[in-house]
């Protein structure tokens, strides 16, 4: 139980305010075309490719949790056929990250969802979400859920609400600032000031 009021957080730490959202039935989906010049593809795990894509999509938003993991840990995660990864490919390069995690029976977690900066705002996000919802509900699930955090794109929460997800919980997570531990560059996520102490 966290007491009401302000709580000091030590220098060097970041505080993530997480909103948890879910959908319990498949919503009606808009008829969305794949934006021109892109293809929707399944992705096989390859460490350098994965780290590059994770960085290009997420560095601006202070995504780092997967960068803390070794290639071996990541390979073990993606070797499970219940973990599935997809992308939007443009000009031969992967520009989006969609990870669906079916490891919990009758559930799907939207584990990662994001676009590289050039794809934001062109309809690619809506296309990718229709694919995510379709693929999730093709399996015998009762719940499709995700977390989004205050450091993610300010467009993300509204986008998820318009997609049919309903907020049901909040969490606070405190961690070492990954820019101070060297996991990501100090230039990452300029909208989150570094407080080094
Ligand atoms: C969250 C995120 C995926 C949303 O993507 P986006 O680029 O805003 O999404 P889109 O451009 O597809 O959609 C935005 C809206 O504009 C519409 N739109 C914009 N340009 C369009 C175009 N050229 N053609 C058709 N529709 C277009 C979309 O249909 C959509 O409307 P809707 O939500 O009412 O359907 C994206 O901002 C992102 O990847 N952010 C960084 C990573 C991140 O924060 N991920 C979330 C982590 S939890």
Word description of this protein:
- With 197 residues, the chain is an alpha+beta fold.
- The protein has a single domain (13-27, 36-176), classed as 3-Layer(aba) Sandwich (Aminopeptidase).
- The protein contains four helices and eight strands.
- It has helices spanning 47-58, 71-78, 124-138, 156-163, and strands spanning 13-23, 38-42, 83-90, 93-94, 96-101, 107-115, 143-149, 166-176.
- Strands 1, 2, 3, 4, 5, 6, 7 and 8 form an eight-stranded mixed β-sheet that branches.
- The mean pLDDT is 97.
- The structure holds coenzyme A.
Q: Secondary-structure map with pairings?
A:
Layout: E1 13-23, E2 38-42, H1 47-58, H2 71-78, E3 83-90, E4 93-94, E5 96-101, E6 107-115, H3 124-138, E7 143-149, H4 156-163, E8 166-176
Parallel strand pairs: 6-7
Antiparallel strand pairs: 1-7, 1-8, 2-3, 3-4, 3-5, 5-6
Summarize the structure.
The chain is an alpha+beta fold.
Strand content: 25-35%
Q: What is the N-to-C succession of helices and strands? A: EEHHEEEEHEHE
Rounded to the nearest angstrom, the radius of gyration is: 17 Å
Mean pLDDT: 97
The name of the CATH superfamily reads Gcn5-related N-acetyltransferase (GNAT)
Largest sheet: 8 strands, mixed
Provide the number of structural domains: 1
Helix/strand structural class: alpha+beta
Outline type: globular
CATH topology: Aminopeptidase
Low-confidence stretches: none
CATH class division: Alpha Beta
Helix count, per DSSP? Answer: 4
Q: Find the count of extended strands (DSSP E, 2+ residues).
A: 8
The bound ligands are: coenzyme A
CATH architecture name:
3-Layer(aba) Sandwich
Task: Give the end-to-end Cα distance, rounded to a whole number of Å.
Answer: 28 Å
Query: What share of residues is helical?
Result: 10-25%
- Oligomer class: single chain
């Amino acid at each position: 139980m966290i007491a009401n009021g302000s709580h000091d957080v030590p220098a060097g730490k970041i505080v993530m305010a997480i909103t948890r959202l879910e959908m319990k039935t498949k919503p009606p989906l808009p008829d969305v075309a794949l934006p021109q010049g892109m293809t929707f593809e399944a992705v096989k795990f390859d460490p350098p490719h994965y780290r590059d894509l994770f960085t290009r999509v997420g560095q601006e938003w202070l995504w780092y949790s997967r960068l803390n993991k070794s290639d071996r840990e990541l390979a073990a995660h993606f070797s499970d056929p219940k973990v599935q990864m997809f992308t939007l490919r443009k000009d031969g390069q992967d520009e989006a990250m969609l990870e669906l995690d079916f490891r919990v029976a009758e559930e799907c977690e939207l584990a990662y969802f994001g676009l590289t900066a050039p794809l934001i705002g062109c309809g690619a996000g809506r296309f990718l979400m229709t694919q995510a919802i379709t693929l999730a509900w093709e399996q015998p699930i009762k719940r499709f859920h995700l977390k989004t955090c205050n450091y993610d794109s300010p467009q993300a929460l509204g986008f998820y609400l318009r997609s049919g997800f309903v907020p049901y919980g909040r969490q606070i997570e405190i961690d070492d600032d990954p820019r101070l531990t060297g996991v990501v560059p100090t230039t990452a996520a300029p909208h989150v000031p570094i407080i080094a102490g």
